[in-house]
């Protein structure tokens, strides 16, 4: 069975196919209005969302399918103590495809091990968000005409911003990409992503870390702004200290290229002033609409790929993964810290990492 848990679950050519299909859907919406007739999407959202859930739901409705689900963990059996594994086994009897958002890192991976239908990760903790990445890639393709030879600045909360982690992984696979990481020291990328970029550097992807937006503005093709993720801080005063680290305003936009684009996964708090919305380079609301089209393309594709597929009796762990129930993942936000799941790991560069959240053991 094919799922989408991490952006690298799709090859570069598969990402290309999904983006082209999204472009064909945009050009011929009536042509795709019945292709998922009779199919049901289950949206299992254990964490707040506006855009992502509505985007998934409207995508399935526009394909002619229907939608069931919950938008709040409090209204599901999780309050009675049901595990993710059991919930998805149950939902597999009712739906054809699942989109899951969860506050625990790795929860969608657990879901994919137990579901009998394809699972899409709609955001897990501060870990990853592969469908936002597809949204970002489609937007970049439509706005810039290409996905290679681009300089992209990631600005804001690179530590907890899962959209940044997934987009860095995905963009690293294209040629001539330069990435500039703009964050205060306290919001630098987490350890597993710093390790990932060290590996990417060896393969020729350029990375640079800076502390101000101004010093790099003129060289950017894309500025990817992010919100400081208040809900992930354990210390309120630390959040207060860093919350307004970067504010994009028309003054700063003056230093940017005339064809630079500004992306933001939204919701925005203070990091982009309202006046920037009127600048034609502000692409974040166009990005939202692309999210629906790319999710239409993704769900249609996953349903086709999985047509007739049967899950293995024992979940297929995937290449390089192994179970060792004597080891523990040290990350308290990892699903393996609270659910009784098999502890799955992989080795890279002599280190052992948790397969659910990538934390180093
Ligand atoms: C993002 C998310 O949930 O990670 N939003 C989204 O899906 N569009 C970004 C955020 O919450 O800041």
From TrEMBL:
Binding site for L-aspartate: 80, 162, 227
Enzyme class: transferase
The Aspartate/ornithine carbamoyltransferase carbamoyl-P binding domain, residue ranges: 2-141
Binding site for carbamoyl phosphate: 51-52, 101, 129, 132, 266-267
Pathway the protein contributes to: Pyrimidine metabolism; UMP biosynthesis via de novo pathway; (S)-dihydroorotate from bicarbonate: step 2/3
GO annotation (BP), single: amino acid metabolic process
Domain Aspartate carbamoyltransferase regulatory subunit C-terminal: 323-360
UniProt family annotation: Belongs to the aspartate/ornithine carbamoyltransferase superfamily. ATCase family.
Job description of the protein: Catalyzes the condensation of carbamoyl phosphate and aspartate to form carbamoyl aspartate and inorganic phosphate, the committed step in the de novo pyrimidine nucleotide biosynthesis pathway.
Identification of the protein by name: Aspartate carbamoyltransferase
Lineage: Bacteria, Pseudomonadati, Bacteroidota, Bacteroidia, Bacteroidales
Gene of this entry: pyrB
